[in-house]
Amino acid sequence: MKAVLFLLMAAAAAVLLAQPGDALATGTNVITIVDQGVGSPSLQLDSLGRPVISYNTEAPSLDLRVLHCGNVNCTAGNSIATVDTAGSINQSALVLDASGNPVVAYHEFGSGDLKVLHCDDPNCVGGGESFTTPDTTGDVGDYLDLVLDAAGRPVISYHNETTGDLKLLHCDDVNCAGTEVSRTLDSVGDVGEDTSVVMDGVNPVISYLDASNVTMKVLHCADPG
Question: Can you give the residue ranges of every domain in the chain?
Fold first, then answer.
């Protein structure tokens, strides 16, 4: 299967799609500029192999956008939706639900909150998108990653900037609109940056940075969270 890569070109502040010509990227590659004045992309492919990306615009707007490409190389028919205009979005993580609709966890640094968007259509333009703020205690939600459990409920790993801790939120519904409670999983030193989370089938497995000791850690949860 061909790899799909995203590059952030700092000089032009453009998000590029790099589509290798073959599995080893030795053929004729296709590079497409899909938006400019943006950064921090997170990428998934839909069922037809078309990229779906969440990212933020640069200052002063700092909005959250979702791009759904019209073909596998993003050369035509692209849909770009500006989904949150709070003006202080700087990181996001995107996955697709079973219907192909984007679910995006993101950090709003102005309020210091963790937010979750669940779109009601593949392009996030249906008008019925769900926005929730499942964690507002301290400056939380940066260095985040997102996966869905078997029931389609978001599982989010992230950093508490205020306390320097690793946190996990396992939502109890697909929109994170229930009574879920976040958990602090590691609080020894400044930990929880650059998180990555997957499920072992039931329980979360998280890799993250221990900034105090400049080490990488792996945490395997004993329960779903």
Answer: 137-225
Report the greatest alpha carbon distance in the chain: 50
- At 7 the pLDDT is 46
Query: Would you state the structure tokens that stand for residue 163, as one six-digit string?
Result: 């306390």
**What averages of pLDDT result for each successive group of 10 residues across the chain (225 residues)?**
46 53 70 92 97 95 97 97 93 98 97 97 95 97 98 98 98 95 96 98 98 98 93
| Predicted local distance difference test score (pLDDT) of residue 140 | 98
Separation of alpha carbons 75 and 81, rounded Å = 17
Structural tokens at position 5: 């890569």
pTM of the model: 0.89
> How far is residue 114 from each of residues 61, 86, 124, 147, 171, measured CA to CA in Å?
19, 13, 19, 15, 12
Q: Per residue, what are the HEC states of 52-111?
A: EEEEEECCCCCCEEEEECCCCCCCCCCEEEEEECCCCEEEEEEEECCCCCEEEEEEECCC
Residue 181, token pair as written in the block: 């409670």
* CB-facing half-sphere around the CA of 42: CA atoms within 13 A: 24
Give the residue carrying structure tokens 């499942």: 134
Beta bridge partners of 225: none
